[in-house]
Amino acid sequence: MANFTSLPTNLIPDEANPEWMSKADNAWQLVAATLVGMQSVPGLIILYGGAVKKKWAVNSAFMALYAFACVLVCWVCWGYELSFGEKLVPIWGKVDVALSQHVLLEKAFAGKFPNATMVYFQFVFAAITLVLIAGAVLGRMNFYAWMLFVPLWLTFSYTIGAFTIWCPDGWLAKAGLMDYSGGYVIHLSSGVAGFTAAYWVGPRLTKDRERFPPNNILLMLAGAGLLWMGWTGFNGGDPYAANIDASLAVINTHVCAATSLLTWLVLDIIFFGKASVIGAVQGMITGLVCITPAAGLVHCWAAIIMGICSGSIPWFTMMVVHKKSELLQKVDDTMAVFHTHAVAGTLGGLLTGCFANPKLCKLFYGKQFVGLFYGFEMGQAHTGFKQLGLQIVGVLFIVVVNIITTSLICILINFIVPLRMTEEDMEIGDEAAHGEEAYAIWGQGDRNENSRFSTYNDVEIGSSKNKGHLEM
Q1: Over the stretch 384-441, which tens digit does the pLDDT of each residue have?
Q2: Least crowded by CB within 10 Å, which of 13, 197, 258, 348?
Q3: Which phi and psi angles does 308 have, rounded to 5°?
Q4: Is 329 helix (H, G, I), strand (E, B) or coil?
Q5: Per-residue pLDDT tens digits for 360-377
């Protein structure tokens, strides 16, 4: 053992601070994980609760809260080892638990901190993936079906993507696929799985699809703000160290998000004549998603270009392509998760294959990957095309896995409990699903110029001369 007597007492290794552990890295990793956790609880709880009709506020928020809690228990019991444990097959690990002191206090497979920190850090990523999927099925999915969906999808879909792309023994990880912080594993997966689940669950009531105003835009903005700031830990935590690559990932994240928001905002103003707050939030989200697979692998100028792309291409698919596609029209994706996560995640993965800087890749991966544009500059175009091709293979793999597993899970659940609430319960919403309501006085979020709404279930009442009689 090295001689540490000359060090300050707080830096001398002991039983609680082994030589292999960096206190700074461990502290940052725990903070980063907590920031990511706060994106879900309370971030997306608040965002969903404010972005839906008043009658769905409790149900939408509760779906997110339940997913977060359920994923944690499943994660330590079997999910972590399936995702990052010993290899069973090239796309999946062996079943095991991450509960014992022997496991949790040992050095993690990466970074200078214990497994307990790594388990916690990876859990919050798994949890937010399920919370994002919930966004696609808000306003009609049976809560009991959702209770079954969460552990099944985590076990048979998320763990496959995580092991294949992030675990050092995974097939695509070994092949050299670049996914810095979850453009594929989290966002593409949640977008495709959410869209697939929305297909099997079916659409909301016709009147809800036609008119689904947010019940509280300010609350939605508060959730969006937590989501944005939480992304500091989302991308800044993935170098597994408090180093310069983490700093680059953080600044790139915020630059891309801001650029994307502004791009979406300008397009809304040009084509619709209004500066939409909801549109700005969607532009922010697509920017955050797009930069995620590239955050610490590209220069800041590339983050600006990616922000312009993420603020325009998903805008085009949502505002133009969606309205012309029969399939997109048929599937009722409540929070547009397909556009904001699947499209933006795919875009980010492909742009990573174009803009990835070899030196930055070496900082993060320990080996040099060459993006397409740098391949041209270095006279290694074939290497750049190979990398871009591998990024495309990653997209196809995630899409196929999620369509198949999500479909099978939904079909299985439907044999146990109905995937969808009854028409009568969907008319009522939270009161039918949980026996609780979010507010006692507000309407569905519609403009209420005459104040003619009752305090229960948004029933419109007659004018003063007809008080006591309901207008049917």
Answers
A1: 999 999 999 999 999 999 999 999 999 999 999 999 999 999 999 999 999 999 886 6
A2: 13
A3: -65, -45
A4: helix
A5: 999 999 988 999 999 999
User: DSSP assignment of 161-205, as one string?
Assistant: HHHHHHSTTSHHHHHT---SSSIIIIIIHHHHHHHHHHHHH----
Highest mean pLDDT among 30-34, 366-370, 376-380: 30-34
Helix 381-416 and helix 344-355, axial crossing angle in degrees, nearest 10:
160
Could you give the CA distance from residue 235 to residue 179 in angstroms, rounded to a whole number? Answer: 11
User: Can you give 334-350 as a three-state secondary structure string?
Assistant: CCCHHHHHHHHHHHHHH
Here the tokens at position 449 are 């110029």
Residue type, 267: L
Longest pairwise C-alpha distance within the chain: 90
- Residue 173 is encoded by which pair of tokens? 């990880």
CB atoms within 10 A of CB 83: 26
Cα 404 from Cα 407, distance rounded (Å): 5
Residue with tokens 């989501």: 227
Among the listed residues 61, 112, 86, 375, the one whose alpha carbon sits nearest the alpha carbon of residue 215: 61
Q: Residue for token digits 């290794």? A: 13
The length of the chain, given as a count of residues: 472
Rounded Cα distance between 426 and 141, Å, is 9
Identify the CA nearest to 127 among candidates 178, 192, 80, 183.
Answer: 80
Contact, 28 vs 111, CB < 8 A? no
